[in-house]
Every structure is written in C-alpha cells, then in structure tokens.
Specification:
Helices cover about 40% and strands about 25% of the residues. The protein has ten helices and 13 strands. The strands form four sheets. Strands 4-3-5-13-6 form a five-stranded mixed sheet, with helices on both faces.
C-alpha cells in the first residue's frame, strides 16, 4: 500500500471530488482516478460510490479514510522529527491563521521569528477557525490559531482574550451607550462572518440563551466590508475590541457587548499528543514571550 494512493483517496474525499483533488495535488484527474482504483483493487473493496458527479464513501471507504488520515499524519510527524536533527537552522513551520485577527496578533511575531530563525520557512494556510482545526487534525499544518473553548482533540497556548464590541450605525437607538447585552439587540439585523468563522457560533449561542434567533442581513469574510455595511445602516456587527477600534469611523459607533460567554479568546492549538517540531515550539514560546499568557 503506497502513501501516494492513500493521499489521493483522502483528498478526493476532503475536496469533494476527483477534479478538485487533482488541482490540489498538482496532478491530472485520470492520475487521481487511477490511484484510487489501484487502492480499491489492492484492498479488494470499493471505497467510493459514484452518484452522478458526486463520490460518496462506502462503509469500507470510511474505515480506510480514517486509517489513512492517521498514517499520513504519522508520516508528517516522522518528517518533522527528522528535520529537527538540523535544529532551527533549517526546516519549516506549517502554521494556520484565521483572517480575523491574524494581522493584529501575529504579524508582529513574524518579524521577530524571522530575525531569530532566518533558516526556517513558514508555510502559511489561511482559513476560518473551523477549517483550521480540521487541517490540524489531518496533519496538513502543525498548529493553528483558533478560538477557545476548543475540543479535547487539542492542546493549546492562550494568546489574547478581549471582549467584543458591537459595531452599529451612528443613529442606532443604542449608540452612545457604554455597554449593552445581546438581548437588547434582538430587533437589529445582524451582519455575521461567513460560515467557518468561530465567532459565529459564539454569537448565535448567546442569542439562543437569550431566547431569540437573529435576523441575519448579510455575511462576509472581510472585516472592512462588514464595517462599511454597518455604516450603510444594513445592520450591526461584532468585532474583538482591538480590531473594532482600529476601524473606528465617523459613521459607526462602538459599544461594549456585556454578555457572558462572548469573549474573543484566541489561542494557538495543536493536535493532542502530536509531536511538535522545534520550529513550532519556538513559535509557541515566542507567542508566550510577547503576550505573556
């Protein structure tokens, strides 16, 4: 059994089809199809059920997928350990960062890290927190920044904890207040982030605890665009304090969200029990040094 065929099968499942998997692996679609067929022939069972343009895992496929993830992750751990024989003079750090807060929290760390370890290449993946946690578990990245609380699948190092601010139009009835609970905002349309951002479930859970489901007027993955939508009176939005204050304009008002369980608690997370390369440990140590968590 070759890791090449396992990787092809895993990416077909993860990417939702042969075409997307081929693009990710820089291969042709027939090459990926042949690799999966080779794996099926070797194991003697069908792994995928082709339904129209979709491929759905069979029961055997689910078992192979789970085992393949483990085997591929072990390979990445092996390569990381071997790279450590060269210390921090060479190697790479596979790091995942979310769009929200990455520039504020982590850009300063890049400059320090680069100055200390110029031989380490940082391979960066950018996704929402949900996707980042998935690729940490599959070994695509060693660690990622995500919001706490997280699951028992991860170990973590806290980075920053701060409240959320409500970004609202200047003429909103609550503009000028020093703080507000989320229940007082039930009648206001919400502008949320796209699915996959960890801040969304934090806010929706708070709404549910207060007995209402918000009217979602729009979603976006771009902080500046969200603030512009608020300025255009489309609704209200929620941002961590530091990020909100950086985008304060004359057209919006910032009000503290005084609501239990809604703090923005960013941390570095990695797979529980995973081997962390010296490069990754150095990144964690630097975050602890700078932010003192």
């Amino acid at each position: 059994m070759e890791l090449r065929t396992l990787r092809a099968f895993v990416e077909v499942v993860r990417q939702g089809g042969f075409s997307n998997a081929a693009k990710l692996l820089f291969a042709t679609q027939p090459t990926i199809s042949k690799a999966v067929k080779q794996l099926e022939d070797e194991l003697g069972v069908p792994l995928l059920d082709r339904v129209g343009h979709r491929s759905v895992m069979t029961a055997a496929g689910e078992i192979v997928y789970r085992r393949a993830l483990s085997m591929l992750t072990e390979r990445e751990d092996l390569l990381a350990e071997l790279a450590d024989l060269r210390g921090l003079k060479a190697g790479s750090l596979r790091l995942g960062l979310p769009p929200l807060g990455a520039s504020t929290l982590f850009a300063p760390l890049f400059a320090i890290y680069r100055a200390r370890y110029p031989g380490i290449e940082i391979r960066l993946a950018e996704h929402g927190s949900k996707k980042l946690e998935e690729i940490v578990l599959t070994g695509e990245v060693e660690m990622a920044a995500s919001l706490l609380p997280t699951t028992d699948d991860f170990e973590y190092q806290p980075v920053r904890c701060e409240p959320l601010l409500v970004v609202m139009p200047k003429d909103h009835p609550l503009a000028g207040q020093s703080k507000t609970g989320i229940a007082a905002l039930a009648a206001s349309p919400f502008i949320l982030f796209e699915s996959g951002f960890a801040l969304n479930p934090v806010l929706l859970a708070a709404c549910e605890r207060n007995g209402f489901t918000p009217n979602v007027a729009a979603r976006s993955g771009q902080v500046d665009f969200i603030v512009e939508l608020v300025a255009a009176r489309l609704g209200i939005a929620f941002l961590p304090r530091t990020i909100a204050e950086q985008r304060r304009t004359a057209a919006v008002e910032l009000v503290l969200l005084d609501e239990p369980g809604t703090q923005w608690h960013m941390a570095l997370v990695w797979r529980r029990g995973a081997y962390l390369s010296h490069a990754a440990r150095a990144w964690v140590d630097l975050a602890r040094e700078v932010y003192g968590s």
